[in-house]
């Protein structure tokens, strides 16, 4: 009986760790929370990006590792950016350079997220 219980637990752990191919594991809520500290800077372009903003970009890079995750995160960021009427596209595009963090897509209203790989 003990062997069966251990086998079931191992199978459950394996299933939990498996992700279906092509399915994103990052949610829009996560993306929005990660980039939220950047909002004041990318809307106004005044001052400089904050440490929290730059750390968020780094967290986004680490969270979105598969193509599906990158495309999902990109679409979430794009949808969030569309909600900012005063988004400064030039400032938001330069944010990774300012923070010295690489992400695979800009925070932009005008990006085709299906092109992200």
TrEMBL record:
Residues 28-113 form the Bifunctional inhibitor/plant lipid transfer protein/seed storage helical domain. The keyword Signal applies. It holds the Pfam family Tryp_alpha_amyl. GO terms for molecular function: lipid binding. Coiled coil: none annotated. SUPFAM superfamilies: Bifunctional inhibitor/lipid-transfer protein/seed storage 2S albumin (SSF47699). The keyword Transport applies. GO terms for biological process: lipid transport. Keywords: Lipid-binding, Signal, Transport. Residues 1-24 form the signal peptide. It comes from the Eukaryota. Plant non-specific lipid-transfer proteins transfer phospholipids as well as galactolipids across membranes. May play a role in wax or cutin deposition in the cell walls of expanding epidermal cells and certain secretory tissues. Belongs to the plant LTP family. This is Non-specific lipid-transfer protein. It comes from Gossypium hirsutum. The gene is LOC107952456.
